[in-house]
Every structure is written in structure tokens, then in C-alpha cells.
Amino acid sequence: MRVVVTGGAGFLGSHLCDALLARGDEVVAIDNLITGSLANVEHLFGNAAFTFQHHDVSNFIHVAGPVDRIMHLASPASPADFERIPIQILKVGSRGTQHALGLAKDKGARFFLASTSEVYGDPLVHPQPETYWGNVNPIGPRGVYDEAKRFAEAMTMAYHRYHDVDVRIVRIFNTYGERMRPDDGRAVSNFIVQALAGQPITIYGDGSQTRSFTYVEDEIRGFLALLDSDQTGPINIGNDNEFSIRQLAEMVLELTGSSSPLVFEDLPVDDPTQRKPDLTLARTLLGWEPKVQLREGLARTSEWFAAQATKGQL
Ligand code: NAD
Ligand code: UDP
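# uridine-5'-diphosphate complex -> structure
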């Protein structure tokens, strides 16, 4: 298979490139590096099956030659970016998705959309099944991301129904692991970096809000299970063990042996109070389930961050 991965130099995109190449696929990664880094894919540059295009997919996408699969991951994903680069997020979710779909239509390729649990907003149904339509504030600061992804899902289904493009939609729940940006702003990377540096752990609100954290290896295995299946989706891929943010902070402190104090800061506007996937579809239709639980995944991730720190790369 020849697979185009938009956002291929990002956290998830680079792990996906690794997994595709490992199973013998050819990969064309496209990225404008707005939140990604060449450091995530530099180990692939000597691989003849890997090519990289530095390009903003909100502009027309050109890929020479045949393409079998297009996996559209390009989009900033951290809430810290929602206020920093809101227009780029809306553009890549709307125009970027349409260009990637247009390429899929032109090449006769299967299209895979990286959607998100954020389409459920601050959910009033718990855990969240794919049939839940969500509780999103369209005009709040998170709306730029949530609505871009909801639009991307709508556009994907329109190309599927109207142009008969073969599509897959995954709804990704909070995923963490090696290659997260240290200054990304997300809870897992912030807490580990703060703990390793002996700085205060910044808990937003009182830390009682919950998330269900997925280790990157499980998430990528879920992507490939959906990609290769006959299911259009959307399908939730995540871990259904739920933790409060305070519990996450305490686990990071324990694993790193840090004595950083906890400090409490303002809760961001519209921060979801709870989040946990209903995994019935993933389990029954894809035979997939998460294997790496939070303690083990966090241990691996903090080891990686510690190694980065010793290389002076934090
Ligand atoms: P990331 O920021 O590390 O990766 C996104 C990549 O897309 C980056 O390399 C960035 O440079 C690139 N990109 C952004 N806009 C682009 C554009 N216009 N043209 C070309 N490249 C562009 O984030 P990630 O966590 O790896 O997220 C990857 C995808 O998964 C995103 O679509 C995100 O919305 C989705 N997702 C991630 C999570 C998570 O917990 N990590 C959760 C839900 C959804
Ligand atoms: N959070 C926190 N401290 C931080 C970063 C995040 O308490 O330094 C909280 C954030 O408010 C949210 C949760 O942790 O309630 C998860 O945040 P993250 O940015 O990782 O993901 P998302 O909000 O997109 O689920």
C-alpha cells in the first residue's frame, strides 16, 4: 500500500508512519511543521519507502503517482493552541480536510479521518457512545477545534455519500506517549516535564475533572484495525479507565519520585468535566482493545522525557 499521512511529523503521525513502514507500506508524510517536528521522523529519512513533503494541506495538495490510503491527521491538537492559532485550526479542519478528501477521490484511495472525543464537547452522556451528538459551545475558545472536527466529519460523510469515497472515521481519546512536545501544554506532558524539573505541577481547577488516557502504541494499533476493517465509523479508540486530573498528577509524582508541589490554577473555559469512551464498537467490530494501562504507559513516557532531558532536549 502507498499511504499518504498528513500531519506525519506530529506526535501521532510519526508513530503511525513507523507502524505503516514496519508492516511494509510505503509512506508519503505531508506536514507544515506548525506543531510537529522533523526530529520525530528524522530516523526515517534513510528509508527508501518514506518520503516527506513540507506543505500546508490547507492549500491544494499534490502527490505524484498512485495512492491507496490517505490518513488525515494534520491539525494542532493541544488546547493551548486553540487560542494561539485558532484560524489555522479552523482552516486545516475545513479546507485541509476537503483537500485531503479531494485527493482521495482523485486517486480512488480510502480516506481515514483523525477525529476526536472533543466532538462530544462537555458531554452530558457518560461514557460516550458514538451515537451521542455532543454538547459543544460553538463560540467558545475550544469551538475552533471542536467545530472544525465536527465539520471534518460532516465533510467526510458527504464525500462518502455523494462521491462514493471509501472512508473511515476514528474518534481519538486523550493519547500520550513518547514524542509529545514538552511545551505542548497538555496535562501528561506538562506534569512529567514539571515533575522532572522539580517545578510545581499546574492543576487547572480542583483536579476533579476526568479523562481516560490512551497509550500511543494502543491508539496506533486501533487506527490500523479501523483502517483495514470494512467499518466506516465513527469509532471511538481510547482507554476506558478513567482518572481525575489530580490522580494523574499524583501518579506522575510517584513514578518520577519527584517532590514537586501541586498548584491550582484557573480551569480553562468549557474544559470538559468528564470523558470516557464507550468501547463497545471497537471491541465488537474491530476486535480491538487497549492493552497498556496508565501506570505502565506513564512510566515509559516519563523515561523518554528523562532521556530527552539528559540530551538537553527538554
Ligand atoms: P501534533 O500537533 O503532534 O500533530 C499534528 C501534526 O499536523 C503536526 O505535525 C503539525 O505540524 C501538522 N499540521 C497541522 N496543521 C497542518 C497543516 N495545515 N498542513 C500540514 N500539516 C499540518 O498532534 P497529535 O496529538 O499528533 O494529533 C494528531 C491528530 O490526532 C490531530 O488531527 C488531532 O486532532 C488528533 N487527535 C489527537 C489526540 C491526542 O490526544 N493526541 C486526541 C484527539 C484527536
Ligand atoms: N490540565 C491541567 N494542568 C495542565 C494541563 C492540563 O490541570 O498543566 C487539565 C486540563 O484543564 C484538562 C485536563 O488536564 O482538564 C486534560 O487536559 P489536556 O490539555 O491534556 O487535554 P484535553 O483538555 O484536550 O482533554
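# post-check
The two ends are 36 Å apart (CA to CA).
The first strand starts at residue 2 and ends at 6.
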